[in-house]
Design goal:
The complex is a heterodimer of chains A (382) and B (308).
Chain A (H helix, E strand, L loop, with lengths): L1 H15 L13 E6 L2 E5 L11 E3 L3 E10 L2 E10 L2 E11 L8 E8 L20 H6 L7 E11 L6 E9 L17 H4 L13 E12 L3 E15 L4 E17 L2 E20 L4 E7 L2 E12 L2 E11 L7 E13 L4 E11 L13 E12 L8
Antiparallel strand pairs in A: 1-4, 1-19, 2-3, 2-19, 4-5, 5-6, 6-7, 7-8, 8-9, 9-10, 10-11, 11-12, 12-13, 13-14, 13-15, 15-16, 16-17, 17-18, 18-19
Chain B lengths: L5 H14 L2 H5 L1 E5 L2 H11 L3 E5 L14 H8 L3 E4 L7 H9 L5 E4 L32 H18 L4 H26 L6 E4 L5 H7 L2 E5 L10 H14 L3 E5 L5 H10 L2 E5 L10 H14 L14
Parallel strand pairs in B: 1-2, 1-3, 3-4, 5-6, 5-7, 7-8
Classes of the chains: A mainly beta (382), B alpha/beta (308).
Chain lengths: 382, 308
């Protein structure tokens, strides 16, 4: 009941705020609402709607942001989707005035890991985040956590920028539920709710080093290294580590057009918790898959873009077989960036499991997203 | 094992310090959102000021990407000059990212009387700025007001030279008045005062020089031209004998070429901002725009002071 009433109440409240100018007033934050409905077609035989066009209301994002005082800002992103209402992000940032020019961020936020994870889906030119991120990073839709992070800019000569950041996270997204074994002495059989102590928290960490160099007046490149680690099963003491190296190049080729190329390589180092019934204790196996993605997006005018993507990665399973996918996408923004259409085709080629007679069939998916925004936060690309 | 004498290290350090220009350390570092504000700061600040502009003269100031290198520049700055009136909200990202707690921020629109201030705003009106048209620097009289604001701010940062800043702002105001007078003289030869602009960014320029904007290529601010709207402009151009379309260099030529074919009007493409943050560039640009609009040619052998 509450799940239905709360979103409705919020929408009524936002509608009442409608006539207020979109920029923040003395008491009101900037308020933006982004809708992201989509049409999808796939030939994936595991999809109940295979080979039929389906419509999806998508996720409605509501963004609230404002200065809290001269030294700090606050930011909230809430999401309303078919599965209910949720807080995607809600954090404060202490921008200036701290010793050593440190910046501090606290609350729930998309973790600053790699290049793509911190970005919201409406800012990327393709429909779905790369599968390698979904397979390796903690979290269901993104690696987002409650915690605190501190960042510092390391002085360099000229105008190059190097920023180091470190975060202490609650670690909830690292948790991986373990299926019970057939052993009678498995703690999960004794108590499925508390056997692996799933309600206990173990802190996680994230670190990032990110550099930027300008090329000419407006172009630039970014390089970053990230690492994150946390406990995936408290009772077993098994841990997950993820490492990431990312590069981004944005080259302006004319006053109104640019080429963006971005790539990330990731390595997952994960201990999977198991129960050793003979020794009556937890055991683990380790997987260390690697993978990555790359894409190029050419914005040939302020409102049009087209690009290609590719990813290849090992599945985080014992056999670590290689999956890969190609993609192509085009985008059109009507009337500035308040309404954008993004068409995406993806060709996914899963590898054959060991011993399989033949390779699984490739899956084609076509998605048309419409992103429309009200308020100052546009359907911009980053 | 050899050791280096402390006196040698000290001497080397002093020699390195001697290579650093003394006045460079003492200069006030100013970063501005646009070259025009930086140029005015250079005129007012003289040798005591080092100015840099974020947006290039040929880029759309509404859409400036926040680069970390800009934050590094602002981290070392003493004063940031914002355009204000909602034109450069991206400057907040640069200022916040700079982490510079000593930075003073001056909204240069503070003492400007904005034109086209709407009584109500919503997106059906296009990209309308709720606080008024923000392209005020294209009127040299507003340039003089900004010079006074900057002089006062520089005087607060550097009281020892406050008198010099105020005096240079006065001189700048006289130069701005002379620039306007020369522009008006050039534009007096225009057969008609009516003109089209692509975007509603030349309102202050037209106000300063007695021109009459009778239409914009964009049907609403920020909305690309439509066939129906261009047909209406063709009708207006023929009815009112509109001689020219004034547009920024970064907009597409298509609408202007169409109007030129249909009505014979002249398309004048010009950057909305001056070429450099150096002193003199701002007024030279205003005068150059007036010359281009008037259709007057540059005197033989004379180089245009500002490249459009």
């Amino acid at each position: 009941m509450c799940r239905r009433v709360l979103p409705t109440a919020i929408l009524v409240l936002l509608a009442a705020l409608g006539p207020v100018p979109s920029r923040a007033g003395p008491v009101n934050p900037d308020i933006s609402i982004l809708g992201q409905p989509c049409m999808r077609w796939t030939n994936d035989t595991f999809d109940a709607s295979a080979k039929r066009v389906t419509f999806d209301q998508g996720e409605v994002e509501m963004v609230f942001d404002a200065y809290l005082n001269p030294y700090a800002k606050g930011y909230f992103v809430t999401s309303l989707a078919a599965d209910g209402f949720s807080l995607e992000e809600g954090y404060f940032t202490l921008l200036r005035g701290l010793p050593g020019n440190l910046q501090v961020k606290g609350g729930k936020y998309r973790v600053g890991f790699g290049k793509l994870n911190p970005m919201h889906p409406h800012t990327v030119p393709f429909a779905d985040r790369p599968r390698v991120l979904a397979a390796y990073l903690p979290g269901e839709e993104s690696f987002d956590e409650t915690g605190v992070s501190v960042s510092e800019r390391i002085p360099l000569p000229g105008t190059s920028s190097l920023t180091a950041s470190g975060g202490w996270l609650q670690g909830d997204t690292f948790r991986i539920p373990r299926g019970p074994s057939s052993a009678t002495n498995d703690p999960l059989l004794a108590n499925a709710e508390t056997g692996d102590r799933p309600s206990e928290a173990r802190p996680a960490f994230v670190g990032n080093l990110s550099g930027f160099g300008q090329i000419g007046d407006r172009s630039g490149y970014e390089l970053s290294l990230s690492a994150a680690g946390g406990t995936n099963n408290v009772a077993a003491g098994t841990r997950t580590y993820v490492y990431d190296a990312a590069a981004k190049l944005k080259l302006w080729t004319a006053p109104n057009s640019y080429l963006l190329v971005q790539a990330e390589v990731l390595e997952l180092d994960r201990q999977n918790a198991e129960w050793d019934s003979a020794a009556v204790r937890y055991a683990s196996t380790t997987v260390r898959p690697v993978g990555g993605y790359a894409y190029a997006d050419y914005n040939f005018s302020p409102r049009y873009d087209a690009g290609l993507s590719y990813e290849r990665y090992q599945q985080p399973t014992a056999d670590q077989i290689w999956d890969q996918a190609f993609g192509a996408f085009v985008g059109l923004s009507l009337m500035e960036e308040t309404t954008s259409f993004r068409l995406d085709w993806s060709h996914f080629m899963p590898d054959a499991p060991p011993g399989a007679a033949e390779r699984p069939k490739a899956v084609d998916t076509v998605t048309l997203r419409v992103i429309f925004s009200m308020g100052p936060h546009k359907a911009h690309q980053f | 094992m050899s050791t280096t004498s402390p006196s040698v290290v000290l001497a080397a350090g002093l020699a390195l310090l001697a290579l650093v220009p003394g006045d460079a350390a003492a200069r006030i570092r100013v970063v501005a959102s646009i070259t025009d504000l930086a140029s005015i700061a250079s005129s007012v600040g003289g040798d005591q000021v080092e100015a840099f502009a974020i947006a290039r003269p040929n880029t759309d100031v509404h859409r400036v990407e926040v680069l970390p290198s800009y934050m590094v520049r602002v981290a070392r700055a003493d004063l940031y000059l914002e355009v204000g009136l909602g034109l450069d909200p991206w400057a907040d990202g640069i200022i916040d990212g700079s982490r510079n707690v000593k930075l003073q921020v001056l909204d240069c629109s503070r003492d400007i009387t904005p034109l086209e201030k709407p009584t109500q705003v919503n997106a059906s009106m296009g990209d309308v700025h709720p606080f008024g048209n923000p392209h005020y620097w294209l009127d040299p009289r507003n340039g003089a007001i900004v010079a006074q604001e900057i002089a006062a701010e520089l005087g607060r940062l550097d009281p020892a030279h406050a008198g010099a800043y105020a005096a240079r702002a006065e001189t700048f105001a006289k130069e701005a008045a002379a620039c306007r007078a020369r522009g008006q003289q050039m534009l007096a030869s225009l057969p008609a005062r009516a003109l089209f602009t692509y975007h509603s960014s030349w309102v202050y320029f037209s106000h300063a020089f007695g021109l009459d904007i009778v239409g914009t290529a964009e049907p609403f601010p920020g909305i690309p031209p439509t066939a129906k709207h261009l047909a209406e402009l063709v009708r207006i151009a023929k009815e009112r004998k509109v001689p020219l379309l004034l547009q920024e260099t970064y907009f597409s030529d298509d609408a202007g070429k169409f109007l030129a074919r249909q009505t014979g009007l002249r398309m004048v493409k010009v950057a909305p901002s001056c070429q450099s943050p150096q002193a003199g560039s701002y007024l030279a640009h205003i005068e150059e725009v007036a010359r281009l609009v008037s259709g007057a040619s540059v005197a033989p052998g004379a180089e245009p002071r500002v490249k459009p």
